[in-house]
Amino acid sequence: MNSEGPLISLCMIVKNEEKNISRCLKSVTHYVDEILILDTGSMDKTPALAQQLGAEVYYGTWENDFSKARNESIKHARGEWILFLDADEEIPEETGRILRGLAQEQEVEAYTFSILNFTTKDKDSQKQIGINLRMFKNNPLYTFEGKVHEQIKSSILKANSVAKIVHSGLTIIHYGYCTDNINRKEKNLRNIRMLEEAVTENPMDDFSHYNLAVSYYVSGQLEMAKKHFQPAKQLVSPKAKYLPALFRNFTVCLFDLVHYEEALNLLNEGLSYYPDYPDLYYLKGQIFTALKLYPYAQQCFENCLKFTNINPEYISTCGVENFLSLEYLADIHAYRQNWPQALEYQVLAVSTGAKSYTSAQRLALFAGKIYKNNSNMYSFLQENLPHLRKQEMLNILFITGCYDLVLQELEEMGEKNPKEFLLGAKAQMHLKDWAGAQRYLQLIPNENTDYQEAQVLGSICRYLQSMDASPWPLITDFSDFLQVPNDYLNLIYQLMLYDSERTLTFNKNNLEAANFALLCSTVGKIAFNSGNLDLAKNLFLETFSFNYRSPDIYRMLGEILFHSGEKKEGLYLIRQAAYKEPNNPENYISLLKHFVDYFTEQLRGILNIYPHLSLAMHHLCALTTFRANLGGKEEFS
Predict the structure, then answer these.
(1) Is residue 148 part of a domain?
(2) 201: buried, middle or exposed (CB in 10 Å: 19+, 13-18, 0-12)?
(3) Distance between CA 500 and CA 538 in Å, rounded?
(4) Whether residue 480 has pLDDT greater than 50
(5) Beta-strand relationship, 165-174 and 81-84
(6) Which of 332, 476, 495, 572 is the most exposed place for a label (fewest CB within 10 A)?
(7) Which letter, b or e, does each residue of 315-347 get, where b requires 16 or more Cβ atoms within 10 Å of its Cβ?
(8) Is residue 480 part of a domain?
(9) Cis peptide upstream of residue 473 (ω within 30 degrees of 0)
């Protein structure tokens, strides 16, 4: 405690926050002079935990008004300054150390902080950053306003029109938007109820419409979100501080609704106001990528890379000015099969912040297109992915087909865990060393969660090892595994994944022609639905060679051919499916989807030659929206 009285008072309102309160208070307790908590009706251990950590806890009744609760919470503050947090937030150490220095500035009346919003608790997950006033001088004239998303800035400026409000440059971490936050849904529904009341009371309040739209968006109700973004946009003042966020978040909603033309128009308007807002270029790039207008997208992402600093007043997704845009540029070059350029951009992305496992996978897959020598590729990965754990690097080597290196690394490791044994077994299976795979599988203990999968893989190994000599089928070896026909067919599919040629030959030699064609058809559908299109295509063509040509095989093979570049042949087969089975709407939906895909591709070609042809852009956006609204399962990206 400051000898002349508290310097900084932390004031909070809480209810049922036992999962969060300790993390929050432990992060800040050494940097403030008193902690004052207003509990509005907790039924859990929140008050007791707060008291254990030195907080003074007061009790009040929740009256569906955040400002009323905040104003009650700051009444007890004795500090010269008030800092306020939510229980699902924490103060990083580098922020805490500077708080007292901020409080020594006599000319400053209040500070804003950057609020870093995690989307999951994984440190490598996507994060957004915004700005919020969180620390101000203790003055009875300064009070919060607004039932939801309460603000104090306007009150400070009403009391002191020349008040100096400064951005601290410091960060507060917020976990409330995490998709794995168990309280997220409940709090969002509460906010929607309160904001609906506010909009009913004052339908011309643009900020309430905006906050309600955001709450609906977070809850996944996109049409309702759009319904309230629209009046917010119509009513908002051009001088409103949240206008940049309105352009951004309304665009995100339209993007998710696949209303691309509206989104592009909104972005163009937003950029006329805020040409220094990289998120707007980034969103534009995302839309052009979705429309497969890659030259347009490339220009947008390159614009993002020109920014070295982002205005702290703008809500922004962390990384739009570097690694996120770089990854999109890598994808664009990968689409063009320009692998050296794709790899170069992905290396830059990883070096500037793309530290997730998915980013590492992408880098490895691009490197695999260039490095034909596994050892050289491994050296490259070690140099560029030093942050990966050993298990992650083994997985990366496995998915890029470096099975020999996986086994080499496992041999050199000391103690190994069951997941590493399982990975070693799979590597041996891809190298068709069935006995070696079984040796690894035998090391996985019965009580381990991977034991069941190990048993299945062991069965596959024994089957493939003895395929040439054994009669069909080997029921004695697979009695536990082959309980129902689907299990049996899935087994055949698994066998084909590891040795399709021998499995196919074996079945062809041991089954009657009609049964073999039926087997190929059924397992081909499993492969198709699993995204293994090359195997599905081969199996469907086998059925054709035996004159087994069902309508669904025509349709699926047609879709595969269409998306592999044989568009006319693909459309012909899908049309044949509709002709052979006229009462099945799935055939007509597929035909319609692929005709739309064909015409959108023609429009993209026109736009690449005539980029300013607005009518072509209008038709492309309209057809893309129509295509998305057709619904049904999507097999292709």
Answers:
(1) yes
(2) exposed
(3) 10
(4) no
(5) unpaired
(6) 476
(7) bbbbbbbbbbbbbbbbbbbbeeeebeebbbbbb
(8) no
(9) yes
For residues 505 and 503, what is the distance between their CA atoms, to the nearest angstrom?
5
Which of the residue ranges 70-74, 152-156, 475-479 would you say has the lowest mean pLDDT?
475-479
Structure confidence at residue 179 (pLDDT): 65
- Tell me the residue length of the chain: 637
**Virtual CA dihedral for 557, 561, 566, 569, nearest 10 degrees?**
10
d(CA 475, CA 328): 50
Instruction: With beta carbons less than 8 A apart as the criterion, state whether 14 and 38 touch.
Output: yes
pLDDT in the model for residue 636: 46
Mean pLDDT of 276-300: 97
Mean pLDDT of the region 624-629:
91
What is the biggest distance separating any 2 CA atoms in the chain, rounded to whole angstroms?
A: 95
Number of domains in the chain: 2
Full domain range(s) for residue 63: 8-174
8 A C-beta contact, residue 388 and residue 396: yes
CATH code at 107? Answer: 3.90.550.10
Alpha helices in 163-274 (DSSP H): 184-201, 206-218, 222-235, 243-256, 260-273
Bridge partners, residue 111, by sequence: 135, 166
Segment 583-592, tens digit of pLDDT: 999 999 999 9
pLDDT class for 439, splitting at 50, 70, 90? very high
Percent of the residues in the chain that have a pLDDT greater than 70, as a whole number: 93
From the number of C-beta atoms within 10 Å of its C-beta (0-12, 13-18, 19+), residue 177 rates as middle
What are phi and psi for residue 288, nearest 5 degrees? -65, -35
Please report which helix (H) or strand (E) contains residue 421, including its range: helix 418-430
Decide if 215 is inside a domain: no
Domain final residue, candidates 121, 149, 174: 174
Going by pLDDT thresholds of 50, 70 and 90, the confidence category of residue 98 is: very high
pLDDT tops 80 at residue 466: no
* Residue 248 domain-assigned (yes or no): no
Backbone angles phi, psi at 110, to 5 degrees: -160, 160
Query: Where are the alpha helices (H) located in 450-583, listed in sequence order?
Result: 451-465, 485-510, 513-529, 533-545, 551-563, 567-580
CB 38 within 8 A of CB 64: no
Which residue among 150, 174, 198 closes a domain?
174
